Amino acid sequence: MAADFKAPRGTFDVLPDAAAGYARFEHAARSTLERAGFGRIETPPFEETELFTRGVGGSTDIVRKEMFTFEDKGGRSLTLRPEGTAAICRAYVEHGMHKLAQPVKLWHLGPYFRHERPQAGRYREFNQLGAEVIGTDSPLADAELIVLLADLLGELGVPELSLRVGSLGSLDTRREYLDELRLFLREHEGELSNDVVERIDANPLRAFDSADEGTRRVMTDAPQLIDRLEPADDEHFSAVREALDAAGVGYELDGALVRGLDYYTRTIFEFHCGRLGAQSQVGGGGRYDGLVEQLGGPATAGVGFAVGAERVLLALDLEPPGPSTDVFVALGEGAEPQRALALLRELRRAGRSAETDLAGRALRGQLKHADRIGARHALILEADGRAQLRDMQSGEQREIEANRVLEEL
Ligand code: AMP
């Protein structure tokens, strides 16, 4: 049968087997972050468009090309959120969180939307876990977030992980550096890809990200921001690295690391998984010391990370979950169907998972169904309160009193 409707391109349905993976991800995230004193926050799935144009930055791919923007019935421009940090900072200011004890530590998990070219690990709707530490510029906060993300990915069992860290310095340093980089790129215009040349003015940093071979060759000699840091930023970055060393978290120093959002200052980092092919980044983040102020709040430092649930689940290549039904209650010769429901309730109250036939099958069909759903036992009800308890793996079967099933299991 050809379906009349499909989930929109780049989106997907989460079916029960996959939902189990998401539940595991959420459970691990919650336990890692709440043990570290983070409180959960959730913001709406859409915001005023200007929050993102101002917060994320008008020159970024996200704002230029990837936002799902629409007008509401009152003529206001709204956008499905493409990232989390701007909205968390909006909430921090809106709820006067700068008056709380600082820093404020928050975590969040939910859907995000970007109009990207869909491929494995890259969707138009995806789920991100984020953690933010707002109200401190301590390098320990940067290091702690990196350590927490390393621990979370480790606990989940993400294989072949690597960590890259870099520093972007202050916005002023970056401005000066960007002018230097633009000059360098102009000098090599002939060897660069068109896409990079087109963006020399708007976003020259993306040249470091280019897959184009000629561009890559040029970029090996490009000036690096990491060599232009002001002493205070350099010191901050050293302190982050020393804290990582002390915590025993290995990393690669990457002077060419750039991220797709304008608000980053100082530390940036990315975790990659060798199993993931082209979209290998499982998570990343950095410091955004100017963002709260940029959004109209008081000058406030902040740092955070985001990790994509789908990328993690892809990296884990999760096996389908094992059997989830302890007992399948089947109706045999002479059994009263009403008794099945009372028994199911009793089993479930005792903490067992239990199901029964809802399709009017004959006994043989019921047992086949029990097998298909991976039930461990079948309880075959018979006349006069008698029953057979069948081990679905071995096929062994013995007669019991139906109301003693809990003791017999
Ligand atoms: P970003 O907000 O771009 O720094 O992305 C943070 C994390 O979100 C990435 O490391 C990915 O795990 C995930 N992510 C970003 N964009 C997508 C996408 N289009 N589809 C799936 N996951 C994504």
Concise description?
The protein has 409 residues and is α+β, with helices and mostly antiparallel strands. 35% of the residues lie in helices and 22% in strands. It has 2 domains: 16-170 and 230-316, Bira Bifunctional Protein, Domain 2 (BirA Bifunctional Protein, domain 2), CATH 3.30.930.10; 325-408, Anticodon-binding domain (Rossmann fold, 3-Layer(aba) Sandwich).
What strand order characterises the main sheet? 1-5-6-11-10-9-7-8
- Annotated CATH homologous superfamily of the largest domain: Bira Bifunctional Protein, Domain 2
Main beta sheet: 8 strands, mixed
CATH class of the largest domain: Alpha Beta
- Report the sheet-strand fraction: 15-25%
Structural class: alpha+beta
What is the mean pLDDT? 93
Give the end-to-end Cα distance, rounded to a whole number of Å. 43 Å
**CATH architecture classification name of the largest domain:** 2-Layer Sandwich
**Helix run count:** 14
The tally of structural domains comes to 2
Q: Low-confidence parts, pLDDT < 50 over ≥5 residues?
A: none
Shape: elongated
What's the CATH topology label of the largest domain? BirA Bifunctional Protein, domain 2
Radius of gyration over all CA atoms, rounded = 27 Å
What are the secondary-structure elements, in order, as H or E?
A: HEEHHEEHEEHEHHHHEEEHEHEHEHEEEH
Number of strands: 16
